[in-house]
## 1
Amino acid sequence: MSTNDVAIRVEGACKTYKRIGRSHAHMAVDGVSLKVERGTIHGLLGPNGAGKTTTLKMLIGLVRPTAGTFEMLGEDSTSPKGRRSLGFLPEQPYFPQHLTALQALRFYGRLGGVLKDEIDGRSNEVLAKVGLRGEECTELSKFSRGMLQRLGIAQAIIGRPEIVVLDEPASGLDPVGQRDVRSLMLELRERGTTVLLSSHQLSEVEAVCDRVTILNFGKVAAEGHIDELLNVSGQTSFKVRGLPEFPRAVSELASDVAVSGSVWVFSVEDSAVRAVVDAIDDAGGTVMSVTPKRESLEDYFARLITLAGLEVAS
Amino acid sequence: MNRMVLIARAVITDSIRRRVPYVIVLFAGALAAAIPSLPNYGMGVEPAVFREVSLALMYVAVIVLALALAANRLPAEFERRTVYAVLAKQVSRWEYLVGTWAGLTVVMTAVIAAFTVVIQVVAVLFYGDPMWVLWVGALSMLLEAGVVIAVAVAISTLMGPVVVVVATLTILFIGHSRSTLLGGLGAAELSYFYPSLDSFNIMLPVAHGNGVSALAVVSMLTVFVGFTGLALLLGVVMIGRKDL
Ligand SMILES: Nc1ncnc2c1ncn2[C@@H]1O[C@H](COP(=O)(O)OP(=O)(O)OP(=O)(O)O)[C@@H](O)[C@H]1O
Ligand SMILES: [Mg+2]
């Protein structure tokens, strides 16, 4: 990756918060480094309180870093000039209540550099894109939580920024809204936009992210492609239908067996895949899917937290 | 510059939507209309006394309104986090702060102008005299309101509305107490360094005299620029160091 291809670079980010009544300060972010390639979607994953929001806020200059450098397209992103090509969705966004959706977008769009002649067209375009068509003249005080989230996304992309930073874009959205956001991110990438998003939902991240950085207790716990991080090596996951009962031959090989209705889900060693498929055929079942076994993000986080706990204890 | 204007405009629309300005103007206007009929020596109030009382009334209304609009402006934005979406754009914190001050000052300009017109109407009705000299008093109040807003906005970068109101009123009080505080000490040399707002005290000459000298107006403008500039500068430093 040459420096020209790096859209976002964070180096050694630290943030300590002083806590009243405590002897030592609290390290919310502790030496986080991050590189996001141009035109890719990068996920920032981690459990609650891991430091995702704090990292993003430092990147955007909303919080003063204790240490670290923050760059977007080679410029210091904590200064206004460095944010020229940025669109940002804050966590649980909130806007002046008395404005209508259209008025709010006019305001944020103009602040983000959209020209006066273009602002109305652009506002309507992004409102349609986030599924708020027909709500142009609704006052924001009458917006639901999910509608505010959508408006937040709209104001982030209205200036057609080269970089979009989204803090938990799916929060507060219904399943359809979550799917819309995923396709919106893919569309942005298609246009060459770089997307950095934070999340604690695997489904949101695995479907779209090229790479992820996992944070835990303010530190980078892992970085890479989501498959590399979460696939359990040597294990294959099965989904099977139409078995009157679980075949003896399979149950000896299978682990993590779960059943729901007539569908069985279980995993086996990679080497046993052939034998298991045959056994299921013989028993009259239908194999619905055979995929590499993937750890759930919940398990992964739980493991990270236990590991960190062990380190502290030792 | 353009972004500062956008922020100022947003502040103005938000203030216009609030009920406080109208209530205060209406209330004070009604009081002003009542002044001429005060039972003074059985034949109504003299024009000079009318000017003095109506200007005093306007002064109180202006300070109350300036504080009502300014004290909670930034704290509410911080608390509701509406500030994030603004400052994540290519907007500097100083543009945000100065834009807020400018918007509030424009609102006060409109209110003071409306107020002065109301008093003039009353003056014409009761005394047959538009009393144009009232506008000099209005100017001094506008400048003082500008200072009050700058001080309040600066303090509100770090403090909540109650502290802002108390601290601003304290500063206002100290600013008008040079003679009381220094007089007894006999420290005349110190008076040059005293942060005095006394230049704005032109109510009496406006009410009773033949108007105000050009020098007094210049002195007023100088004090306005100095105090507002200093308060905004401190505000910019403080908001710049804040974690949002
Ligand atoms: N203003 C603040 N003052 C003190 N501590 C803070 C402040 N903001 C965040 N923290 C602390 O910093 C840590 C990281 O918080 P942060 O909001 O970055 O987490 P997060 O990863 O975004 O979590 P979530 O998934 O819940 O949004 C937490 O322990 C939190 O208590
Ligand atoms: Mg967060």
## 2
Amino acid sequence: MSLKHVLQPFNAWVQAFSKPYTIPMKDTMRPGADRYRGWHINDVEKCVGCGTCADICQNAAIDMVPVKDPVKGDSGLRPKIDYGRCCWCALCVDVCTTGSLGMSNEYTWVEKDPEKCRYTPGVDAKPWDGSEKGWRQEEGFSLIVKDRVPMPMLDPKERIKTWAEVVVGYSVEEARKEAARCVSCGLCVAACPAHMHIPDYIGAIRDGDFEKALDFIYDNNPMPEMCGKVCTRRCEGVCSVGIQGEPLAIRWLKRFATEQFEDFAKVLHPEVKRVGEGKKVAVVGGGPSGVTVAYYLAVRGFEVTIYEALPQLGGATFFGIPKYRFPMPSLEKQVDLLKKAGVKIVTDHRVEKDEFRRLLEENDALFFGTGLMKPYKLGVPGEDLEGVIYALDLLRDHHVGKKVEVGESVVVVGGGNVAIDASRVSRRLGAEVTIAYRRRREDMPADDEEIEDAEAEGIELVTQSIPLRVEKLENGKLDFIWGPAEMVPPDRPGGRPKPKLIEGVENHLQVDRVIVAIGQKGEFEWMPEEVAEKVVTSRGWVEVDETGMTQWPGIFAGGDLVNSTADAISAIADGLKAVEGIQQFTLEGLSVSKS
Amino acid sequence: MKEILKEIEERFGPIWERVQRPKLAQVGIEPAKAVPLLTWLKEHRGYVTLVHLSAVDWIEQGEFQLTWLLGNPETEERLMICSRIDRENPAAETVSGLWPQAVTYEQEINEMFGVSFPGSPRQGVPFILEGWKDIPPMRRDFDTVAFVEKHIPGREGRKHIDTRTYIGEKFGEKGYLHD
Amino acid sequence: MTETRERSKEVQIWFGPQHPGITGNMSVQTWLDGDTLTRGITHVGYLHRAFEKLMERRLYIQSFPIVCRICVPEPDTNEWLLASALEELSGLDREVPEKARWIRTLVLEMSRLGAMLMVLGGHAGSMGLGPAPQWMIALRDLVLDRFEELTGGRVYHMYIVYGGVRRDLPEGFAERMEQTLKTIESKLPLIDDVIFGSAVFRKRAMGVGVVPREWAFEMGISGPVIRAMGIPKDVRKDEPYEKYAELDFDVVTEEGSDIFARAMVRRREIQQSIDLIRQILARMPKEGPYCAELPNMLEWTIPVGQTYVRAESSRGEMGYYVVTDGSKKLRRVHVRGPSYVHGVSLLERLIPGTNIADLAPLMVSLQVCPPEIER
Ligand SMILES: Cc1cc2nc3c(=O)[nH]c(=O)nc-3n(C[C@H](O)[C@H](O)[C@H](O)COP(=O)(O)OP(=O)(O)OC[C@H]3O[C@@H](n4cnc5c(N)ncnc54)[C@H](O)[C@@H]3O)c2cc1C
Ligand code: SF4
Ligand code: SF4
């Protein structure tokens, strides 16, 4: 051992004179790094209370707690974090569907009482609220899948030559992959008028258990294959995954599940008490609301007869919605289940006043869901000319098998789904089609995807156009004359901007047909006056209570003529309400015939 | 690694095999032949290192899997020898005579899974757990949640609401096919 | 008669579980004759957190924040091993982007560097050489500063995740890293003076705690312990992972197989890590994704399979044996740390004949880490 090794360690003393690299606490509080994982912050306005953060937390540090009433699209719950358990992994931040949750770069907090080390970020005020720094979600890293599995569709050029279904449908692999994107928050359940068990059937699809999926689906929707193809999908509008990405393809997944089976009766095994044995119910109108009432009452043992004026059940989903969206075999499959459940179906049979009176005598309860069958008029000169027709008539005639002709060119007036359907049907009948709509594109009530599909099929959209009159031309064609509109602020706050005609400009469009699709209303000529007086309002609506019952005890109603949303799933929801109402009404020993 | 797998098959009869990576292969063999195979690999084929010994509980099939991982320091190749034994009264031959460190592995598996290695020096001697009364805790049927709730109760006053259920209740989600 | 007399002279001492010389929470039950140890048994269990069991009860993504906690000084190796095993079994490994692979290599080297700085301090500390450990911890803290800005955490990084890493390098990271490396390098000569140049250290480390070469392969000895025997074993070369095959470095070896040789291997590997970090930063792609597109982590399932993955941690070969069963959770994960052998079988074999004062330096030189023994 040399002397060198005895002396060398004394070099340590140089350190005594060098600048220390420790930071004196008294001068400055050293801030955490820019992406430090410190105390949580939450933008509670952006947060929708989906609870995904709580699901991913492996420490069970997060409780979802109520901070306000639940509404569609927001559960009203917010994450409350227990810092006795949190390990600052920030998985909650990275998984957050809305990106509302973050972490500040603050890391010190002294509290005598450990119980205080729990708080609801964004609700319980903290010094680090609004912190600019700390861990946030970043582009390029996601724990959930934001992109939807694309739905295969027929090529637009090919599909206008046929009536074949445009949407091809998911393969098993695609469906399971899409289903696996779900975070099971259930926000969709609130938004669905029928409150279908959405996360549950999606979960069953993901797990490959399609029978289970169908069982969940049929639990509160007797026309799911129809909804799987054409539903307005309010659910998808609130899907938490859709906030930063594309919403789950809930509609397509439902469609997938129902398409896996040829005969639903073989798969479904209702287990309900047959409380309705010996009770009779008549249903007038075979639309979705009527079908719902008939099916669920029938499985409960009620003797149900459904009367429908047209040759097939389905209502507007049969006579209105085109077959390239909702083919006949799909409808027949669902009607078939109704028959197997024991519903008596009387088609091609329009109920008139006297019969209605008789039905009142013979049944314990009665439901009508006769829809909106009467189109609104355009109200311009020339409307009565030959060649000016109504979309509803065109579609119905076409679907009941009557021969319809639209010529070489048509203009469709309107911006809703009916207008789009009439346009696309006309296109398939061989016409050049223009849609004339009063407002802007973003104001169109029609489904966005439908509008895109129509445009892809070569349909032209003329927005902010106000029809002025229709004239007959020498060559036999019609001259559709319209003026441009500018958008003016709404009359009342919160309303929609209104179109206002710019005077003095006239545009001409030569067409063979003018197809009017600006809405429809209820038709009550078949209804006995004494009933109509009681149940139909002055504005042509039918009002019901929370059990679906009209002012006439024992008469229930639902569907388009009752609700304001006028879509199939709302009609089904009305039907469900009436099922319970009717069950309650009859079980209390009451009966419409005796009232 | 194909050659060694082929040779094993020829010498030790039917095996299950798979090349996982260029330098890692797996062999499944009946329990009675496992230790002879390990011995042969160590003594004649350069697999002199016991990298680890592990157990897996396949409770659904009523079996425990034992996995000996051997390494050949010459080639850096690794062989995973797997063998399934009955889950009832599970026992396996010890390799502590071949590798001194096997004593610890066998002691731990004995403690954590309840598999015994007769003849191995520290069987029944606690390794990680002291005074453990429950079933061997690495068995799949040991309920960790119940254990924690009993011994380390959580903080009071916490209440988590499951969003999915809550929405169903608040918005009146109902089913009509089942009561 | 003689035998009983001998026996009665024997004293039993529990070394640990709380003792400054013990490398973490464990204890060695020892028997002494005079101040010479005659026998020792390693006892663990003071830190058992049942990580392996916990992971069987959690989603894959929920296991990710758990594994780092197996090793305080060097968590990243654990993160990488779990990620790499699950990527291999799920097929996600084909999608890990190039940049992620470089960042991972960077993180693994940073983590080795931080751990080695700490343990080299420990070498000195276990012999009562005060200043060195404090400086080393301070230097390690500079590495932690870089970790903090990169991963959002100083100690537990939770950064290497399935498919890549969680965040890109922050702006100006390479420059700040270079600054840190320079600071560390500037202090190393001083460290050499107080450790390797110290008569105390040399006297107590040379020829002490010699591991016989014959034990090397049979027992599965690895890391600085095997390299100090002159055997060039290093997983980064033996089965290169991530970007190691593309980096320029030689396996560090020393002769003597004693405490001094092991400390010297670590000292030289500190420099090696510094060089590697420089190479990595110079070659790191500037653009490109840092993580693959992940499936929904709440529903991720992995097909049936099993594998063993390994990496060179500062302590030696760290391995994960992982079994999946097609579900959303692990069937089994077995963490194989080098300490399992070094801290139990090897230590127990080395103890007889060792002076009690040398037990702590010996354990540090084997870099025994109890959490990886009991997981
Ligand atoms: C062209 C078109 C496209 C549509 N597209 C969609 C869409 O994509 N998605 C969506 O969700 N909704 C769509 N809808 C709306 C949807 O079809 C309706 O909201 C739904 O069908 C309303 O159901 P309902 O129960 O009120 O009865 P309706 O479907 O309106 O059916 C009423 C039924 O009662 C029958 N009826 C009436 N009077 C009598 C009587 N006296 N005796 C016997 N039977 C009678 C009618 O023949 C009719 O079949 C569309 C509607 C139309 C017209
Ligand atoms: S940071 Fe991790 S442990 Fe903490 S609340 Fe979020 S998910 Fe749970
Ligand atoms: S994941 Fe995000 S949006 Fe959902 S509840 Fe948590 S903080 Fe709110």
## 3
Amino acid sequence: MSFINYSAREINCKIVYYGPGLCGKTTNLNIVYKKTRPESKGKMISLATETERTLFFDFLPLSLGDIKGFKTRFHLYTVPGQIFYDASRKLILKGVDGIVFVADSQVERMDANMESLDNMKLNLEEHGYTLDKLPYVIQFNKRDLDDVVPVDEMRTVLNPGGVPQFEASAASGEGVFETLKAVVKLVLAELKKGA
Amino acid sequence: MSQASLVMFEEESVEITEIITRLVKEANAKSAYLVDKDGQLISSAGETQDIDSTSLASLTAGNIAATGGLAKLIGEQEFSILFHEGEKDNIHISIVGHRVILVIIFDERSSLGLVRLRVRKAGEELGKTIQKILARMDSADSKENLLEEITDDDIEGLFS
Ligand SMILES: Nc1nc2c(ncn2[C@@H]2O[C@H](COP(=O)(O)OP(=O)(O)O)[C@@H](O)[C@H]2O)c(=O)[nH]1
Ligand SMILES: [Mg+2]
């Protein structure tokens, strides 16, 4: 849930990167962190296992300039992708203002993508949210690999609703900011609408 | 969207900051933070300059969320107080009015007993203030128009 603080003159919003294990959620945040000016970002926190698998969440606070004299601040979170971390995933969705679903374009990960998308819808519903009503974009990641599913097919399967979708190779940074910008815009537009 | 924004006005912020500033003093604590359950920092007081408050807010909310999950697992509603003891500094975390989280950092100049006592009193006051904010947000006529005035150009301008 966004937090508008008149005293600090800040608008704070929460964006969650969701998707199956190893699809590149943490990589997205790492790239955003690396390519953002020091004054615009806070500390990145990764609660990860010793093998760098996300255990609870990654967190990156980001400032994106002013609107009407208010600083806009976005808190980016990733969820752990492994199936058995479902309890943690659910917790992180609480109060979400916008969602990026990161899909893994590799042929053998399509089942995992679908499973994760279903799981996300369920977890949102348990919080009383519906995906259709949330600012939501989808990223087809790992386009640089050889054995990837054609974009058309990915759209049919994962994005029948036609939300903004982006091809990315997060590891090299491609598509990362396009995705982030799109969800930020939707979140702000939603705030405006809800006002 | 089902969830409205949490909106805090200047005078409400002042009221909250006054309460936690007094709490820091009366509890002999180093600092106090009020954090929303979603991880946003609402206010802080005391010696806060050495601690990254944004990280603190996010981790505290994560901590409360995780222990809340544990509580449900064993059939409790929530654990309303958490205490972490360090070698020098300690953290006392409590839930105020089911809605926000009060974090106190203190060292040997204070004690858990004193912090508990003062937190209970301040918690009641904070609870009332939070209730007031929520009630004000519920009343339709007080909807502020800051967000309505945002234009598409404003949004576009963030990325130029
Ligand atoms: N080839 C390729 N590898 C990627 C890409 N994005 C992420 N990876 C790799 O995929 C693995 C898992 O990424 P990670 O961000 O930890 O996944 P998470 O589980 O979704 O957080 C890492 O080894 C990344 O380097 C990409 O666009 N292309
Ligand atoms: Mg990860």
## 4
Amino acid sequence: MAVYKAEGVVLGRRALGEADRVVDLFTREFGRLRVKVKAVRRTTSRLAGRLEPFTHARLLLARGRALDVVAQVEVLDGYADLREDLRRLSYGWLVADLTLQLVPEAEPHPEVFALLVEALQLLREGDPVVAAGWYALRLFGELGYRPASGRCPSCGGEAGGDRWSPALGGFCCPRCSEADPGHLRLGGEAAGATRFLLQASAQEAGRLRLSERATGRVVAAVVAYAEARADRPLRAAKVLQALDR
Amino acid sequence: MLPEALARLVEQLSRLPTVGPKTAQRLALHVLRMPEEEVRQLAQALVEAKAKVRPCSVCFHLTDTDPCPICTNPGRDPSVLCVVEDSRDVLAIERAREFRGRYHVLGGAISPLDGVGPEDLRIRELLERLRGGQIREVIVATNPRVEGDATALYLARLIRPLGIRVTRLAHGLPVGGDLEYADEVTLARALEGRRDL
Ligand SMILES: [Zn+2]
Ligand SMILES: [Zn+2]
């Protein structure tokens, strides 16, 4: 059977039949993949603990009929410490959901893979809310719909304020924002942070300190923007509201 | 072509979890070879189970008496509560014959990618039971997966302020297994949870 190697991060998984699982991976080489893991739910499976969400691993995959099958997993980083902190875990799920909803399957995006690995590091070491916001804003750019930040995407006018329109495509001018009932006023701090994160490196993002109020608004802004692009709600964002109190 | 009545049976069976079309056909043909009386008993068992078995109104474990035999058993310690995701977990822990307290079945675990949040689980009902004042320890026995971990963390955050001890099942190596075959995550957790000898 043909086998191939990939380096990937586990985004999620669900049961398939009695003992198997389908795992959502984001790989450096092939982008987002769905693969099958056999008998992973049995306690004797050596693969189960190695394919938990957020695990960064080197994989050996075998070509299968409908789905390719995981043959071997070598863990590079299990991110076990994320699992001890509900807040980091919650924003980790938001990062996973953004990736699942926005990146099409089987399209190589090595630059998104690099962002994802940096976001996981930031989730572990920094403010998890900033980490998720940074990842989302940079992801939009890599996927070709970077939010407008200086010029209004609708009329080309001055858009230096705090009016954020997911439908129009980012920061927009006061006049155009009035035509979009879904626009948000982010306030000065969150608007400044959003503009900063749009072009920040992971290290720069890690040094950003924000008030709780502003981080909440940055998250609301990126979630609304992602939902407008994906044209469906982010499930993880809904649950996040209940967890992050 | 299958006779219509047989095709209907195959189609019904193939709706069951883990039963593919081939297995469904094999099961259906087996039913046809069974004595009529046994087929009747099978059908009756299906209908009766559906009609009589309900979640216990106290612990939400499946039962045909309410409250369930575990909740009403005076020999079981009412001060220790074991919180599990699913009725199957109650059966698994009961098989170990080690636990003498009572249970609370959550009905799942927090799973944001599936849209399952705390309000979708029987957490409100759990907190109501805890406010009764009789319970001194809650053992969180959710699955050792990210979703189970998140649920445990969330429960601990809610329960600790009530002055009740919250513990979690130890993560360890499967008994009868080989150390050399354990995955590194399980091994790391087993090391973390080591005990004095
Ligand atoms: Zn405009
Ligand atoms: Zn009961």
